[in-house]
# Entry
Amino acid sequence: MSILQVSHLTKRFGGVVAAKDISMTVENGSITAVIGPNGAGKTTFFNMITGVYKPDEGEIWLGNQSLVGLKAHDISKRGIARTFQNIRLFGSMTVLENVMVGLHNHIKGGLFGILLNVPSIRREEREAQKEAYRLLEYVGLAQFLNEEAQNLSYGAQRRLELARALAAKPKVLLLDEPAAGMNPKETKELTELIYCVRKEFDVTIILIEHDMKLVMEISEHIIVLDHGEKIAEGGPLDIRSNPKVIEAYLGKNALAQ
# Structure
């Protein structure tokens, strides 16, 4: 059963076509990778799904809900969360506060309730703190809850960004180059964490990634983009041996890996 359907997505910036006629169907509970060379349109594709960009053409459906034209925060409320290629944490805020930012869509009291210090809002805030702490425990960062996010190591910041995305209670989680800058040990730990997140949070995962070892190991379905167009899709074995993909991205040594 599909959870996300994308049909004929196109995005232009002036005379440049960053994404052209991209379609895909993502099955509920699956792990899907979007790969391709730099400039292939991968992040533009994510930005359209998450409401950062409005597509010039095409449709995006989450279940039976159309997402085209919705603001990013409304799409988040409907169940899509993401991490970014370049980490976007609030560096001077604590680790705990960063995760609580991800919970804001689920705090019902609103600004006036917080300003008036309403008892029900105080209870809701305490529950949010507990949930944020639970997520930090899950990603192995609970001991740093009062540390400023900017003081964490690079790998820890990546895990914090994941915890913040999970705080939004997504149905679909988009990970933009989650292994970028990681050493082999951190990448192995990330692979295991992604598997666990899929199972424990009952979430569908779509990732952009250049680490082909990770992609081939973890993905059940792969979409390949080049110059803004989809040139191939299929399982890891199909993609590894696809002549178009080898020519555009993987290289001829891919068959030997």
